[in-house]
Amino acid sequence: MKYINRLVTIAVAVLMSQSIMAHEGLSDAFHAEVLGGERDAIATITLTESHVDLAHLNAMGMDIAGVNRKANQVDVVVNDWDLERLAQEGFKVSFDKAQKLYDKGLDEEYKNPSEVEQILRELAEANPEIARLESIGKSSEGRDIWALKISDNVNEDEASESAVLFNGMHHAREVMTPEVVIDAAQWLVKNYVSGNEKAVNWVNNTEIYLVPMLNVDGNAKVWSGTRMWRKNTNYGHGVDINRNYPYQWGSCNGSSGSTWSDTYRGPSAGSEPEAQALMGLVSKIKPVFDISYHSYSEIVIYPMGCKGARTGGNRAVVENIGASLGTLVDYEAGTAWELLYSVDGGDIDWMYGVEQVLPYVLEVNSSRQGFQPSYAQWRDVTVERVRPSWQMLLDRMSQSGLRGNLDVENASQWRVKVEKRDAGSLSEIIDYKVNPDGSFHIVLEPGDYKVSVREEGSATRSSSDLKVGSDLLTFEPQL
């Protein structure tokens, strides 16, 4: 009966949320001033039925900060009105006034947008042979969104080299995430220059792109004093960039249509300049892998975000790599809907569903550290703990799979279909759309495969039986 009552409450909360969403006169000022003021403190809730309770909190419009799955607890960012609502709904809430840390000010060792730019610029200027800084777009307030490319022939786009992407700070308050991406850039440059064998191999054979801070405007707002700001600052009320991507946008109650919500998806799919900037980069470089660093919960998330949805024929590849990442850094791995709640309009679903990327989210730090832990105490501990995650994917670039180039016109109209042979039968893994430069890089598990090449709308031009081992196989089909 308790379960049924909770489901009924969720349904009512969803209807109330939809009613609020339809009420265009309900402004963010109303939400802030009348409904309890700025959310500026953390409350911890002990869950009784994890997925049901998380769905309920989402439906209530709560700002979920992080989850401790081992303790079956969730942190929410609250104001006084939120605390009253949580009590009314019967949630067991622990609220320690000491958790209202945000009066102390943000640790100034963390980086603001200008400082991130300065670090990247200094790396590029000191190492022009392997590092290049470029703006991938501008925010709504006119700030540049910076990407650092690291590769041996850094000023060339080499069809013979595949790309990988690491990005941070979709959400403004997650100040540890740029540190992780900056650490990757600094480690790669330093160790390449010193002759570290792995670093030299990665840089010489891969085009590595790093975007430490996507949400530059939101982060500037955090530094102005709104410590728990999550969204960008567009339209005044802001948009959750990681609910704005066009794939499955607003499709499964994994975001909000209310402007005051911290998961507001925006007025239309892909409306936000930050999402457009990252999509433009991904569409240009066609990365094999991506890691989007977030905080916090100590989990690894892989596609898909909507409840019950899974990746396609290469599900085993996607999920096994995700599980390996989790094991490597001692995080739990799964989809968002398995570990947390449904998410729609997220970057990793768009990357997988539209651009054929194998993308992951790493939620760094735990509820013990929160969004903005002591820099001196936790920065090095965090970046060193998760450093193996991006290093593992750089290693995986040269492991089991197919890599090749088609010398054809209109290469993006061509397909490489991969089917796995198992006990005499064939099962489709992927029908890969060739990149505009003619390249393809398909991550596989070791095994026997049939590989067919064709132009869209035409008959198969080439068919080969291939054995894929533990190393990347170079495949040049005869057309």
Using only CA atoms, what is the Rg? 23 Å
> What shape does the CA trace take?
globular
Number of helices: 13
Instruction: Briefly note the structural class of the backbone.
Output: alpha/beta
The fold-level CATH name of the largest domain is Aminopeptidase
Name of the CATH architecture of the largest domain: 3-Layer(aba) Sandwich
Brief summary:
This protein has helices at 2-22, 28-34, 50-59, 80-88, 113-126, 176-193, 197-205, 216-223, 273-285, 315-329, 336-339, 347-355, 375-396; strands at residues 41-46, 63-68, 73-78, 92-94, 131-138, 144-150, 162-168, 206-211, 287-295, 299-301, 332-334, 358-364, 401-405, 414-422, 425-433, 439-443, 447-455, 460-468, 472-474. By secondary structure, it is an alpha/beta fold.
How does this model look, in words?
The protein has 479 residues and is α/β, with parallel strands linked by helices. It folds into three domains: 103 residues, Alpha-Beta Plaits (2-Layer Sandwich), CATH 3.30.70; 284 residues, Zn peptidases (Aminopeptidase, 3-Layer(aba) Sandwich), CATH 3.40.630.10; 74 residues, Immunoglobulin-like. Helices cover 33% and strands 25% of the residues. The strands form four sheets. An eight-stranded mixed beta sheet has the order 5-6-8-7-9-12-10-11, sandwiched between helices. Strands 2-3-1-4 form a four-stranded antiparallel beta sheet, covered by helices on one side. Strand 5 and strand 6 form a beta hairpin. Helix 6 crosses helix 7 and helix 10 runs antiparallel to helix 13. The protein is globular and about 70 Å long. The N terminus is likely disordered.
